[in-house]
TrEMBL record:
Pfam families: DUF998. The keyword Repeat does not apply. The chain crosses the membrane at residues 12-31, 51-72, 84-101, 121-146, 158-179, 185-202. It comes from Cryobacterium roopkundense. InterPro entries: DUF998. This is DUF998 domain-containing protein. Keywords: Membrane, Transmembrane, Transmembrane helix. The keyword Magnesium does not apply.
Length: 214
């Protein structure tokens, strides 16, 4: 069986990251019309088109695995890269779990980080751990890229999207204590950081692979 190339992994991760964002956006315009500002992204998996979001959760797990495959093929490994890959891969695995445990949709004005059912409690816990793992993963991998000198053309984007993701995480913490009505926006800023990081880092990997193949 032929070995999957680094370029193939990177291309698949780019398509997956872009596709996830497109599906997430389209679902906002479908019933029951959840707010991207106040409603958690996971709410999109509850309703007549919820199955599409569940497939999207599974797709994000596959995207994460492809990104890990692309990054694992780079030279200059070490404990920092291994830690980052494990964290990011675990974050992707958490996304897959979300597809099987529906979240609890809360009435307007009620804090979103409260579970009322066993499935909702699992979803909330896994989603929280997954976000933290993915953000820790891209932060660690960005540090490795700078330390190892890998992907010189993609390091700036890696830093930028890591900063966006961490800013979203800080904003998410603020919504918990002071602005629950902004929870959805904070989550989506985190996602922009994670998905943007995957897309642009993998684009650089793909570009380098094309140059090396000539």
């Amino acid at each position: 069986m032929p070995r999957i190339s680094r370029r193939t992994y990177a291309t698949a991760a780019m398509i997956g990251a872009a596709g996830y964002a497109v599906v997430d956006t389209v679902l906002q315009f479908l019933p029951p019309h959840y707010s991207p500002i106040s409603d958690a992204e996971s709410n999109l998996a509850v309703g007549p088109f919820g199955w599409i979001m569940n497939v999207n959760f599974l797709g994000r797990a596959v995207t994460s695995a492809c990104a890990v495959g692309a990054l694992a093929g780079l030279t200059g490994g070490g404990p920092l890269r291994r830690s980052g890959l494990v964290l990011f891969g675990f974050g992707g695995l958490c996304s897959a779990v979300l597809a099987f445990f529906p979240t609890d949709v809360h009435p307007d004005g009620e804090a979103g980080l409260v579970a009322h059912t066993a499935a909702g409690a699992v979803h909330l816990t896994v989603a929280t751990v997954g976000f933290l793992a993915a953000l820790a993963g891209i932060t660690t991998l960005t540090g490795w890229l700078w330390r190892s000198g890998s992907l010189s053309g993609g390091r700036g984007a890696a830093v930028g999207f890591t900063a966006v993701g961490l800013a979203g995480l800080a904003f998410l913490g603020l919504t918990i204590v002071a602005a629950p009505g902004m929870l959805g926006l904070a989550e989506r800023i985190c996602l922009v950081g994670i998905l943007g990081w995957v897309f642009f880092v993998c684009r650089e990997i793909r570009g380098q692979s094309e140059l090396n193949s000539r």
